[in-house]
Amino acid sequence: MLLFEASITNKKASDYLKGNTNKWEWNIKKNKISRSGSLLTLLDCSEEEIGFTFDSFLKRIHSDDVNEVRKVVARTIENKTSYKLEYRFITPAGRELIVHDQAHTILDEFGEVEGLSGVIKDITLRRKADKALWKTEYKLAVAHKIARLVSWEYEPSTNRITWSEGIHELLGSEPRTIEQFRSYIHPNDLDFVKRIGEASNFGEPYNIEYRLIKQDGTQINVYEQAEVFFNSDGKIERKIGTLQDITERKKTEERLLNSEKLSVVGQLAAGVAHEIRNPLTSLRGFIQLLDGGISSKEYYKIMLDELDRIEFIVSEFLNLAKPQSTNFENYNPVELLQGVISLLKTEANLQNITIELDIKKEVQEIYCEKNQIKQVYINMFKNAMDAMPKGGVIKVTVDVMPCNYLLIQFKDEGVGIPKERLKKIGEPFYSTKEKGTGLGIMICDRIIARHGGEISFESEENVGTTVSISIPIK
Predict the structure, then answer these.
(1) 250-472: CATH, from 3.30.565.10, 3.30.9.10, 3.40.470.10, 3.10.290.10
(2) Distance between CA atoms of 224 and 210, rounded to whole angstroms?
(3) Which of 149, 280, 385, 401 has the most CB within a 10 Å radius?
(4) 452, containing H or E segment
(5) How is residue 19 annotated by DSSP?
(6) PAC domain spans which residues (predicted)?
(7) In 3D, which of 426, 425, 424, 412 has the Cα closest to residue 460?
(8) Contacts of 204 (CB under 8 A, 6+ apart)
(9) To 10 degrees, the CA torsion angle through 434, 424, 225, 454?
(10) What are the tens digits of pLDDT across the range 258-286?
(11) Is the pTM of this model over 0.70?
């Protein structure tokens, strides 16, 4: 039991006793203690059970606390001062109470100590609540440490950030202002984080991923989520959030991403081969004409166009296939989409599938990782094609929604997904395909989430499926 002791002035102690009914008084010369009835009720005992002397009272104090109580009382008498302390009291029924005892010395006409007067309070419930709170906070701290997570609070009025324990381990320092914290953000991610932070000033919670460069120069990936709180005047009072080190998780996701990418590349291989064979056949024909003496400037232009077509297809294919570092930059999402459509057009034609692109509004650039966005597009098209074994139309609609969000919808005329299965879409290893792994949609969902957006699904059996992707625009 942690014993609390503090010295206080006799006047303060005397003031404290006024109006308090749980009183006791010890006449040192007679070694007799008198107590109020309410105190006896509090301690759940009679005068006979607790005894009339100081030593008999000490017998009721927990064995681990009694020596310290004896020392405090002796020191108070010697110094003619006051005390307040906490200790455990054992009732005659064996019940353990935690009590707060506060007392002061009583001096005679010659200034000598003739007794002590005090008040006892039962604080058992309060201390149990404190202990429960401590346990909860301790468990939370342990959980935060295991999850490599810290919490923070930011007050715009003072530009101060308050961190929970663990920020030094996470970052190597404890930045106190927004400017100090931003100095640790990866330069390529800084504008993106600033934009999201400014957008949150309108009250929208946010969750984003970005990179930090620690004090020692090492780079980590973090996941941040936060909410904004306003005062009665509608002004921002504070932002509260968490910051989690997800570096290891990102490495695992990258391995999954590359695995799924190779799977997609394998599926595209046949279509790409056919796409290259067509211009090669055309080139072979023109070379034979030239070899036969038939020449025309138009032939050379057509041949160059066919070679450009081959170069484009091979480049796109290699960009998808080869491992690449994650690099977020500003790209036009429609141009990326048109590139993927161009790559898949021949394969779609072979399956009697038409791809229609409807751009509702002019789209600005978005801050994205282009190869990951392409991978999402390809996955959406491949799923739509697989859902239409007899052919059909894939309609892609691009629009700009309120709050400056890009909306891309992929609508097919496939077999659709039953309602009971629709809820599980995106779960690892759950697939509506006979030989599917379920990782494709899960990875696409992670990619879009990494870009601050989300994917949703609507489907009706024997009618088709619509996949909606929303991403914030620059």
Answers:
(1) 3.30.565.10
(2) 8
(3) 385
(4) none
(5) T
(6) 83-135, 206-258
(7) 412
(8) 228
(9) 70
(10) 665 555 556 556 556 656 666 676 677 66
(11) no
